[in-house]
Write a structure and sequence with these properties.
The chain is an alpha/beta fold. Helices cover 49% and strands 13% of the residues. The protein has a 7-stranded mixed beta sheet with strand order 2-8-7-6-3-4-5, sandwiched between helices. It has a two-stranded antiparallel sheet with strand order 1-9. Helix 9 (202-207) links the parallel strand 4 and strand 5.
Length: 296
C-alpha cells in the first residue's frame, strides 16, 4: 500500500508572517500614487483582515485576501502588469545565452535545474531588490541545502506523466529552458487562474512561448499558491493523474507541503525564516526537496 511518509508537516502561520505582510504592503503603497488618506484606510482594512482570519490562519489564504484588497485600492485588476512584462523581457533577452550554456555543459539537466531555481528570486511579493545575476552565480558555486536532484532526474526518466507548477514571471522563462532540457513527452505546465502579485498567468506563459515546450493550463484560482480545495476540476484531474509534481517557489510549497500524498519535488530559493525553519535550512539557501510516498 502507498502511504504518505508523514515526515513533512504542513507549514503553519507564524507571528513573523504578520510583519512580512506589513513590510511588503508598505513597499507597495509607496510605489503607487495613493493619497495619504487612502493609505491609512488600506492599513485599517488590512488589519481588519488580520483580525477576521485570526481563527483560520493560512499564509496563502491571507495573502490572497490582502492582494484582492490592494487591487481594489489601486483600481487595477493587475497592479504588477508592467513589472511582469519587464521581468519576462529581461529573462527572454538572456534566454539564448543560457540555452547555449545548458547545451555546452557536461550535465545539461543540472545546469538547467540550477538556472530554474536561481530564477525563483524574481518575487516582488518578497522584495523589490532583485539581483538575478548574483543568484545565478551563487546557485552554481554552492551545493543545495537539500539535494534530491538525483532522484528527480531518475524519476523523470521513468514516469509517464509530469505536472510542473509555475510561479513568477521572468522565472517562467528559466522553467521553459528546464522543460526543454527534460524533454518529457507528457508534461503539463500550470500557471495562476488570474493575476496576483507577479505570478504568471496564461497570458504570461503565451508571451514567453511556453506552449511550444509544454501543454499549459491554469489552476483556476487567484491565490499566489496552489490551494487544492479551490483549484479547477481541470487542474485537479491533471494533479491526480500525474506521477510526479514539480513545484516552484515558496507560495506553492506553502499550499502543498505536508498536505497531499502525491510525490512532489519542491524547487525554490528560501526567502524567509519561517520557511527556513520548517525545512531545516537557512534563508537564502537553494533547495530541491522531495516529498514522497513509501510502500508499507
Amino acid at each position: 500500500m502507498l502511504t504518505y511518509t508523514g515526515t513533512d508537516r504542513e507549514i503553519l502561520f507564524d507571528h513573523r508572517c504578520y510583519f512580512c505582510f506589513v513590510r511588503a504592503f508598505e513597499r507597495l503603497l509607496e510605489s503607487k500614487s495613493l493619497l495619504e488618506d487612502e493609505k491609512k484606510r488600506f492599513v485599517g482594512d488590512m488589519f481588519n483582515i488580520f483580525n477576521c482570519t485570526e481563527n483560520d490562519l493560512s499564509i496563502t489564504k491571507l495573502s490572497r485576501e490582502l492582494h484582492i484588497l490592494f487591487k481594489q485600492y489601486t483600481h487595477s485588476p493587475d497592479p504588477y502588469k508592467g513589472v511582469k512584462k519587464k521581468s519576462n523581457d529581461q529573462v527572454l533577452e538572456m534566454y539564448p545565452k543560457f540555452r547555449e550554456r545548458v547545451k555546452a555543459s557536461a550535465d545539461s539537466f543540472d545546469t538547467a535545474l540550477r538556472l530554474a531555481i536561481a530564477g525563483n528570486i524574481i518575487d516582488y511579493g518578497i522584495t523589490d531588490n532583485i539581483d538575478l545575476e548574483s543568484a545565478m552565480s551563487t546557485v552554481f558555486s554552492n551545493n543545495y541545502s537539500i539535494d534530491d536532484s538525483f532522484e528527480l532526474k531518475k524519476d523523470l526518466s521513468k514516469v509517464k506523466k509530469v505536472l510542473y507548477l509555475g510561479d513568477n514571471c521572468g522565472e517562467i522563462v528559466f522553467d521553459k529552458l528546464l522543460i526543454e532540457t527534460i524533454l518529457h513527452p507528457n508534461l503539463t505546465y500550470v500557471v495562476r487562474g488570474a493575476p496576483v502579485i507577479n505570478d504568471a498567468t496564461i497570458e504570461d506563459a503565451r508571451y514567453i512561448g511556453m506552449e511550444s515546450a509544454a501543454k499549459v493550463i491554469s489552476n483556476g484560482y487567484d491565490a499566489p499558491s496552489t490551494i487544492l480545495e479551490q483549484c479547477s476540476q481541470e487542474f485537479i484531474a491533471e494533479f491526480n493523474s500525474s506521477d510526479i509534481i514539480i513545484s516552484k517557489g515558496q507560495g506553492n510549497l506553502e499550499g502543498l507541503f505536508g498536505k497531499t500524498e502525491k510525490t512532489i519535488y519542491f524547487l525554490l530559493m528560501v526567502k524567509c525564516d519561517v520557511i527556513a525553519d520548517n525545512l531545516g535550512v537557512k534563508k537564502g539557501d537553494f533547495v530541491v526537496k522531495k516529498q514522497a510516498r513509501i510502500v508499507t
